[in-house]
Structure to design on (425 residues):
């Protein structure tokens, strides 16, 4: 297994952990929040790749150092070194959604997640249909 | 088989005339490229069977399956290749299948998903036919098989404000009957608010080989009538209407009716006791 695959597996595992968290945990994590800005990037007909600088901003119920991972191998794990740092900017170039997960640097426990969604502004290509779909035989 | 190869060679060999970028304007006459279009209509309907002693054919649901690529397309059993697609006309090489066999067989593609056989009363010898002449009654032994075949040919569409005209010619690709068919069809569509209405008038020509294969009498079926009835080419005339009421993006209410006046040349066959076939269907259609 290559390092990017391990990274992806790690993110997927953490994501599943987020989904599977029970209500009690959700209540205890209600002050942990990770926000990606912008949340949506719209690609055009000419430019299918989204090249943008993202701001990741987080809030924590308890001050602690965190790491941020993504499911895109191009953006490996990033960790902060200061409790005062609550944002980070990253440049991305992607044509697919990116899921970010914030974990505790110390315990590796999942704290919050955020997703950058890539949407195409181009209309689907259409052409004339030659048969009436409901024509009777 | 050589005809298939010929059609393929013609298809691939013909220089590409060109494809207009915008060839359809309204949603209901367009299809998204490179995406399967699947749907099913559920309801109730019936197709009358002009064959003597054959049951009418109930219609409980109608499937629709289509896939359109850049030039190739598959649409409800028809495979086609667009040679040119312009604002005012299109030309396609296309396959189709005959509708005539559907009167004889339950699992003919035209009868897909029908509830019961159209051949549940084929014991011709048990039922004397209505005969008003001095000729022997058309009583038959078991009918010989009418095999399935695909037709291959060319179709052209002409688009105008007065509607769409389809001109088509196709020939038996598998030498089952070695016959040909042609069609002239005029279709006009209305789209008002949630209502979509398509009205068509159609002329279907069938060559002598086609008429003879499906409606001619084989010697083993009845020696007298195999000599007496001599098939010849003929034109069927028909009208059809499809009315849709759009409920949601996925759901439509659907009413479809069709009437075909069978040509005199075919209606003269002793296999038939009606010179028409009518079909109706009413139900709800779901597009996936």
């Amino acid at each position: 297994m290559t390092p990017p695959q391990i990274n992806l597996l790690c993110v997927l595992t953490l994501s599943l952990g987020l989904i599977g968290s029970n209500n009690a945990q959700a209540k205890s994590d209600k002050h942990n929040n990770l926000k990606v800005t912008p949340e949506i990037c719209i690609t055009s007909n000419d430019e299918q790749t989204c090249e943008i600088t993202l701001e990741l901003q987080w809030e924590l119920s308890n001050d602690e150092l965190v790491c941020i991972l993504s499911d895109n191998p191009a953006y490996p794990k990033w960790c902060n070194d200061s409790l005062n740092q609550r944002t980070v900017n990253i440049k991305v170039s992607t044509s697919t959604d990116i899921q970010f997960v914030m974990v505790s640097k110390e315990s590796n426990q999942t704290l919050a997640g955020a997703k950058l969604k890539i949407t195409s502004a181009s209309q689907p290509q259409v052409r004339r249909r030659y048969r009436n779909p409901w024509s009777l035989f | 088989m050589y005809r298939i190869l010929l059609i393929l060679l013609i298809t691939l060999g013909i220089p590409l005339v060109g494809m207009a970028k915008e060839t359809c304007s309204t949603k209901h006459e367009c299809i998204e490229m490179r995406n399967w279009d699947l749907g099913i209509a559920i309801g109730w309907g019936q197709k009358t069977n002009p064959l003597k002693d054959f049951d009418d054919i109930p219609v409980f649901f109608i499937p629709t399956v289509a896939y359109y690529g850049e030039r190739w397309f598959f649409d409800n059993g028809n495979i086609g290749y667009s040679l040119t697609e312009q604002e005012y006309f299109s030309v396609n090489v296309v396959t189709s299948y005959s509708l005539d066999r559907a009167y004889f067989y339950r699992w003919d593609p035209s009868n897909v998903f029908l509830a019961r056989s159209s051949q549940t009363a084929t014991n011709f010898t048990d039922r004397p036919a209505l005969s008003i002449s001095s000729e022997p009654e058309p009583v038959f032994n078991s009918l010989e098989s009418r095999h399935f075949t695909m037709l291959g040919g060319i179709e052209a569409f002409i688009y105008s404000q007065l509607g769409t005209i389809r001109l088509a010619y196709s020939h038996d690709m598998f030498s089952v009957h070695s016959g040909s068919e042609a069609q002239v069809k005029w279709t006009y569509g209305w789209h008002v608010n949630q209502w979509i209405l398509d009205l068509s008038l159609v002329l279907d020509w069938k060559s002598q080989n086609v008429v003879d294969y499906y409606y001619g009498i084989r010697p083993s079926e009845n020696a007298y009538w195999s000599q007496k009835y001599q098939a010849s080419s003929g034109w069927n005339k028909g009208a059809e209407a499809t009315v849709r009421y759009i409920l949601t993006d996925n759901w439509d209410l659907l009413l479809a009716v069709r009437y075909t006046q069978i040509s005199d040349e075919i209606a003269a066959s002793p296999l038939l006791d009606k010179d028409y076939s009518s079909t109706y269907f009413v139900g709800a259609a779901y597009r996936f």
Q: What stands out?
A: Residues 43 and 120 of chain A are 5 Å apart (CA to CA). Residues 6-28 of chain A have pLDDT under 50 and may be disordered.
